[in-house]
Amino acid sequence: MSLKTKILKFINFKNFWIHFTLILVSLISIFPFIWLLSTSLKGNSENIFAYPPTIIPKEFTFANYVGVWHKVDLMRYFINSMIVAGGTVLLNLILSSLAGYPLARMEFKGKKIAFFAILATIMIPFQAIMLPVYLITLKLHLVDTVNDTMGFIGLIMPFAVSAFGIFLMRQAFLAIPREMEEAAIVDGCNVFQVFWKVLLPMVKPSLAVLAIFTFIGSWGEFLWPSIVLTKEAMYTLPVGVNNLQGMFSSNWRYIAAGSIISTIPIIIFFLAMQKYFISGENEGAVKG
């Protein structure tokens, strides 16, 4: 056997174990979701806590989805979540871009200090600042006891901009050659026009990445809405699905069905934006 053949065999053998490990880790990661989906499709006659667990239901039924849809106002929860997630994504894209642009393209005193101060906030968990944020929200009357609009603002504003978003957009702007900006200035564009018409369209992949992460985080946020909200009509999907546990005496089939329904928008949003995802992540990582 020639040396070349031996090397090719070794490479193929190595790739096999790499692929095998990746597939195994993927199956372990996705197993809870598969189990949740299986539970939502099982009828009342089937024991969902059987051991060993049965992944494939003996008798498929969509009665749990129909039941949970009629028992609670999931559509209202869905609309509330869309308003909160949509507003959070929109504000993050606008504010993070406006903050990242001067940090990347302008020179001013204290620029590095400001940038590192923003980065330092990543290390502070939201739970550590939740009490002062809650008190500020109450002082500003951004709660649903005033009206629904103020309640939505109170849910959105604490997450309207993030250090991660500012960092990601700064890295994206740094990757654009300065010649593009100089050419636009020569053509008569002012600073805002350069930002809006030239640079911003060139960082669409990074905007898509920021939108995906922000949407997923906002859609799945449970702690803040559960603290701020007082009216059931204002519940977002995570809070509404959690409320199923008490309403149906822990009917896990309904809870599983409600959880699956709540994940569908995230999957659709990710699939719609995935073509920008990889390129956008790379743009944010290659230049410092």
What percentage of the residues does DSSP assign to strands (E)? under 5%
Question: Would you tell me the overall average pLDDT?
Answer: 83
Rg over CA atoms = 24 Å
- CA-based shape: globular
Catalogue the unreliable spans.
Answer: 284-288
- CATH H-tier superfamily of the largest domain: MetI-like
What is the CATH third-level topology name of the largest domain? MetI-like fold
Instruction: Work out the helix count.
Output: 13
How many separate structural domains?
Answer: 2
Termini gap: 48 Å
Per DSSP E runs of 2 or more residues, the count of β-strands stands at 0
Major sheet summary line: none
Secondary-structure-derived class: mainly alpha
Can you offer a commentary on this structure?
The chain has helices spanning 3-40, 63-71, 74-105, 111-120, 126-139, 148-156, 163-174, 178-186, 191-202, 204-219, 223-228, 237-247, 252-283. The chain has 288 residues and is mostly helical. It folds into two domains: 3-61; 65-283, MetI-like fold.
List keywords for this structure.
288 residues, mainly alpha, MetI-like fold, 2 domains, 13 helices, globular, disordered C terminus
Task: Give me the secondary-structure topology.
Layout: H1 3-40, H2 63-71, H3 74-105, H4 111-120, H5 126-139, H6 148-156, H7 163-174, H8 178-186, H9 191-202, H10 204-219, H11 223-228, H12 237-247, H13 252-283
